[in-house]
Amino acid sequence: MSSDAAAITLVALRKTFGDLVAVSELDLEVQRGEFFSIIGPSGCGKTTTLRMVAGFEDPTAGKILVGGRDVTGVRPYHRSVNTVFQSYALFPHLDVWENIAFGLREARRPRAEIATRVGEAIKLVRLEGRERARPSQLSGGQQQRVALARAVVNRPDVLLLDEPLGALDLKLRAELQTQLKDLHRAVGITFCYVTHDQGEAFSMSDRVAVMNAGILEQVGRPEEVYRRPQTAFVADFVGASNRLRGRIVSAHGDGRYRTEIEGVGERSVSGAAGLTPGAEVTVVVRPEELELSTASTAPAVIAATVTDVAFLGSQRTVRLESKVVGNLVASTGGGTRAPELGSEVGVTFKDEHSWAVPV
After folding, report:
1. Side-chain half-sphere exposure of 294, counting CA atoms within 13 A
2. Sign of the Cα pseudo-torsion (212, 218, 221, 222, in order)
3. Quick one: which of 236, 231, 321, 327 has its CA closest to 281?
4. Phi, psi torsion values for 342, nearest 5 degrees
5. Whole-angstrom Cα distance, residue 146 to residue 152?
């Protein structure tokens, strides 16, 4: 993908605060019209990256291009970028209509155009009938929708969203996630979304970037990042995972490796590129890929004891302790009969459901 075709291009982007390196040599491209998310733990550099794209922070080094145009050092109001924050930042003395129209009025757009575009934005965020309400008369979700409408009504090339749903309760967040996806499809603007909530990012995004300590660990489609993590950090951060110690015996040349897994034996597993014989690896198996049975002593079965069972509605989480591989976690359907606490079970997994990453 060429930089000219990208909505956002970051080239060797770096940001330091004194001795602290917040973002380190970041190279990244976000495609036009894409819903792109950046995830990572607190302090990983994701919000700093977003603020540099917005123009609120100047990079220490590197370049920022928006739509192929170098905007490094360009002030925020001269970039075709709008930002939505977790704090709604609405004008309390203005009603919904006037909050959304504010940017268009500042740009001195014709009155007829303002009326048309504000009306369209209100429909997009489903606030018909609330045009004359003040922010204090709206729920948190409604206020966030006003902030979204105000951001998209100016038709920026890129909409940056910094933890926009972080202040909402769980049920409302789920509703707003659906509405955000609908809004993205309707307006066709590039969305760049920052969140620490991986489930939120995975449910909405075309692609996801995982950051850690200022470094970009992996970029890919949500399922690819979840199923095929390229580093031990991504495997551990993205979803729950069972991590088994292993050593590469031989490479098959097709992305698969003969691997000696401690407490399990030799298995043929897929893995990250470039692993060589003798390399120490972590073999990742997701909880939903573990199979439990009562045959705890059968061949190729890990014997384990059930230490906890948690009912989560659509699924159950079963925590296990094995003398040979340590602690494990399995996920079963909520309608499936759960093993009893303290019972002995057998644990198995298929080769194709395992994935090796460097230690």
Report:
1. 4
2. negative
3. 231
4. 90, -5
5. 10
The domains found in the chain, sorted by start residue, are: 3-227 (3.40.50.300), 240-358 (2.40.50.140)
DSSP β-bridge partners for residue 302: 347
C-alpha 147/C-alpha 266 separation (Å) is 55
Specify the DSSP element, H or E, that contains 203.
Answer: helix 198-204
From 229, 263, 271, select the one nearest 355 (Cα to Cα).
271
Tokens 């019209």 label which residue? 33
pLDDT per position as a tens digit, 218-227: 999 999 999 9
Contacts of 260 (CB under 8 A, 6+ apart): 246, 247, 249, 266
Report if pTM > 0.85: yes
H or E stretch including 227? helix 222-227
Mean pLDDT split into 10-residue runs, the chain, 359 residues: 74 96 96 96 94 96 95 93 86 95 92 94 92 93 90 92 83 86 91 92 95 96 94 91 95 90 93 92 95 73 92 88 94 79 92 93
Write the CB contacts of 144 (distance below 8 Å, at least 6 apart in sequence): 84, 88, 164, 165, 168, 176
**E strands present in the chain:** 6-17, 20-31, 35-39, 61-66, 69-70, 81-85, 158-162, 190-195, 207-212, 215-220, 242-251, 256-261, 265-271, 280-285, 291-293, 302-311, 315-322, 326-333, 344-348, 354-358
- Say what angle helices 170-187 and 140-152 make with each other, to 10 degrees: 20
> Which residues pair with residue 38 across a beta bridge?
194, 209
Contacts of 170 (CB under 8 A, 6+ apart): none
